[in-house]
Amino acid sequence: MDLDGTLLRTDMMWESLARLLRRNPFAIFQILFWWTRGRARLKQKLAARVQIDPATLPYNQEFLKWLQAEKSSGRRLILATASDLKMAQPVADFTGLFDEVLASDGQTNLRSQNKLRALEKKFGVRGFDYAGNSSADFAVWRGSHQAVVVNASRSVRSEAARCTTVAATFCEGYSPFAIMRSVCQELFIRSGYLVAIFAGLLLAIAFPKPNFAGFAWIAPALILFAARGKTGWDATRVGGVAGFAFWLATLYWLLLIPYPGFPILGWLSLAGVLSLFVAAWVWLLAGKIGEGGWGSRTYWSIGGAAAWVALEMIRARVLGGFPWSFLGVSQYKIVPLIQVASITGVYGVSFLVAWFSLALYTAAQMILRHPNQKFIWQAEIAFPLTVILGCFIGGFFWMSGGTATEDYLRVTLVQPAIPQTVIWNPDADEQVFQKFLALNEAALTNRTDLLIWPESAVPEMSAENCRLISDLANKHHVWLVLNGEDLSTSPATNYYNAAFLVNPDGRLTTTYHKQKLVIFGEYVPLVRWLPFLKWFTPIVGGWTPGEKPAVFEITRAQDTPDQTITVGINSVPPRATVKMSPLICFEDTFATVARTSSQDDLDFLVNLTNDGWFGNSSEQWQHMANSVFRAVENGLPLLRCANNGITCWIDGHGRVRQIFHDSSGSEYGHGFMTAEIPLLQTSGKSPPTFYNRHGDWFGWACVGLSILLLGRNIIQPKH
Predict the structure, then answer these.
(1) Apex CA 583: angle with CA 581 and CA 586, to 5°?
(2) Mean residue pLDDT across the chain
(3) How far apart are CA 304 and CA 354, in angstroms?
(4) Paired sense of beta strands 479-488 and 494-502, if any
């Protein structure tokens, strides 16, 4: 008789897969490799790594009783299964019924024709009766004396009757989903992975798009709920699964990179690495979730929020840093609340969201423990809710106390919407650049003070292209900020991703070299020692990071007031100089880079980016949401000029004041946008915000508190 689906109401291979994945979700990559070498090899590898207690398996009790009766009558019973011998033998030993076990051995998958040949070799043609349950058993039944049909559908029973004489059937309670239900129960329900995946996806949709920000206040608690009752590696795996689901959903746009092979590899690898931070957070908090009195529970929730922030601090710095989609970024539209970032940075908003979520968790716990005390949950959320409301009200008053502005800079931002495949095609460079220059001619029909181009708008900084750029600035007497590559040959040859400031005479005045390079996009780590890594990237060389920020200063003649728009009763003279600092690509996601760039009496920040790598996706909106916090943290407007969106400008309070739309209303199309950027009249002003002066003091405080929490976990092991 067969084992899987016959003697057992489950399948040993799938049960082993479920248990292995429950123990280590990332074993999926090993499993896929084993599968390529055949099912027999896969089963052998699973059997070597997973031991299943046969007493815990679901047996077909009616069939088992019949076998016991057959055994008592003197019949010889053979367990003939496609499961590996190491899987089948413990079951045979546990039941004590079988005279022999025939099973897969790592080379031969004992199924269908292979099983028939093995049985005929041992017992001769039609020298045995065979009990099975599926279409894979038809070949065996055709060579058997009689068939015993177990746990099978009506169609299988009918076909078995056509193959040979049916001696007995045991099909009561048959369910085609029995094996699937058992595997899902093991893999998702008992493990907590189903809830963890749901929590991760819930957190993902809190970010743009669709940006249901309220889910961010629930998801951390739900992740811990999935890990309830678990400690150590069991809890850590649950956190890893939640993090993996979150990052796979959030970073789906990596799959849109027009480069064969790299997108899916980068997507899975990056999501896997980033999921470790969520796993570490769950490990820190699990085991003592909300224990003790109100004080202990409050300490736990505050410590848990601090741990979340500490891990964001680490993520922003390790391996060059990836400060993308911090928890607080999901709240970028709640402008009064995010004003706290002017003191704490984005980390303060992340802390508030995580703290309230953990307070909700303890509130739910108290309701379950004390169902008769109707208002017991209120004590759990009162403290964090009061702080959040205080921050919201304080932010509202902070926003209403702005300085009156009587001077504006007129800025035109050009969005060419050049597809990435075209950018990589050198044969199209001249045609694309000429079309781009024509777009600028149309944009400059109205007076403007400053023209801004996005990253990758210039194919190459050749002599001819430089001449065309100079002629454009000189013809329209306009300042121009653009992006291109810069070459330095002293003391060594280095290539930089650079921003340039060109004056109205067409001369280059200032250059900035990008400091934060994109890993596997602009440089390959460890490539000197592991040169094969460059095969997995869409780049052919490496860029050199810049060393410091730069200030681009525009000088305006005082006798030409028409260079600016002046409003207000007093009509003050226009500012003689305007200062800005450029950020390239995803540098506007790095709080430290934007802060150091905002130290020199700056008027605004400028981000030049090419998000066309990722098609028309939510990546552009996620990028913009991150940049909102650079404006709030430094109290400065931020202008974003993008290749295919989102081109916009954000004021110093984080309000998105104007977004480019093309003629069809899309943010991803080509065109231009003119904006009037307010300039403060105060000269010699100090850095505008507490965060700008003091940096990540709040984040480092959370790191310190998390170290204390870690020490307590080590000294007092979890139950």
Answers:
(1) 160
(2) 88
(3) 8
(4) antiparallel
DSSP strand pairing (565-566 vs 577-584)? unpaired
pLDDT in tens, 198-226: 999 999 999 998 999 999 999 999 999 99
How many whole angstroms separate alpha carbon 160 and alpha carbon 141? 7
Q: Which residues pair with 501 in a beta bridge?
A: 481, 510
CA angle centred on 133, ends 128 and 139, rounded to 5°: 55
Q: Which residue has the higher pLDDT, 493 or 700?
A: 700
d(CA 717, CA 719): 6
Three-class secondary structure assignment of 277-315: HHHHHHHHHCCCCCCCCHHHHHHHHHHHHHHHHHHHHHH
And the tokens for 614? 């990722």
Question: Which residues, in sequence order, are CB contacts of 464 under 8 Å at separation 6+?
Answer: none
Burial bucket for residue 72 (CB in 10 Å: 0-12, 13-18, 19+): exposed
Any idea what DSSP says for residue 458? S
What span, in angstroms and rounded, lies between the C-alpha atoms of 62 and 67? 9
∠ Cα 584 595 698 (to 5°): 130
Range list of β-strands (E), 332-406: none
The stretch 394-408 carries a mean pLDDT of 79
Cβ-contact 704, 441 below 8 angstroms: no
Residue type, 270: L
The enclosing H or E element of 30 equals helix 28-36
The per-residue pLDDT for range 268-301, each reduced to its tens digit, is: 889 999 999 999 999 988 866 656 788 888 989 9
d(C-alpha 459, C-alpha 194), whole Å: 48
Q: Are 473 and 504 in contact (CB under 8 A)?
A: yes
- As to burial, measured by CB atoms within 10 angstroms (0-12 exposed, 13-18 middle, 19+ buried), residue 590 is buried
C-alpha distance from residue 277 to each of 27, 383, 432 (Å): 19, 27, 43
Residue range 55-93, pLDDT digits in tens: 988 899 999 999 999 999 999 999 999 999 999 999 999
Residue length of the chain: 719
DSSP symbols for 125-144: TT-SEEEE-SGGGHHHHHTS
Following DSSP, what letter does each residue of 210-256 receive, concatenated? T--GGGGGTHHHHHHHHTTT--HHHHHHHHHHHHHHHHHHHTGGGGG
Region of 425 please: left (phi>0), alpha (psi -120 to 50) or beta: beta
Using a 10 angstrom Cβ sphere, with 0-12 exposed, 13-18 middle and 19 or more buried, the burial of residue 345 is: buried
- Say whether pLDDT at 570 is over 50: no
- Cβ-contact 84, 46 below 8 angstroms: yes
What pLDDT, on the 0 to 100 scale, is given for residue 189? 72
Report d(CA 520, CA 534) in Å as an integer: 8
Tokens 């681009």, residue? 552
Is residue 211 left, alpha or beta, with left meaning phi > 0 and alpha meaning psi from -120 to 50?
left
Sign of CA dihedral 452, 453, 458, 464: negative
Residue for token pair 């210039």: 458
Secondary structure class of 266 (helix, strand, coil): helix
> Of 202, 193, 201, which is closest to residue 239 (Cα–Cα)?
193
Whose CA is closest to 653, among 621, 618, 681, 688?
A: 688
pLDDT of residue 607: 98
Dihedral class, residue 216 (left if φ above 0, else alpha if ψ from -120 to 50, else beta): alpha
Which single residue is written with the structure tokens 């690509």?
585
The torsion region of residue 9 among left (phi > 0), alpha (psi -120 to 50) and beta comes to alpha
So what's the pLDDT on residue 562? 46
Retrieve residue 169's tokens. Answer: 């059937």
294 bridge partner residues: none
Token pair, residue 275, equals 């999921």
Strand ranges, E, within 610-655: 638-642, 648-650
Q: State pTM to two decimals.
A: 0.82
> What is the distance between the alpha carbons of residues 567 and 560, in angstroms, rounded to a whole number?
16
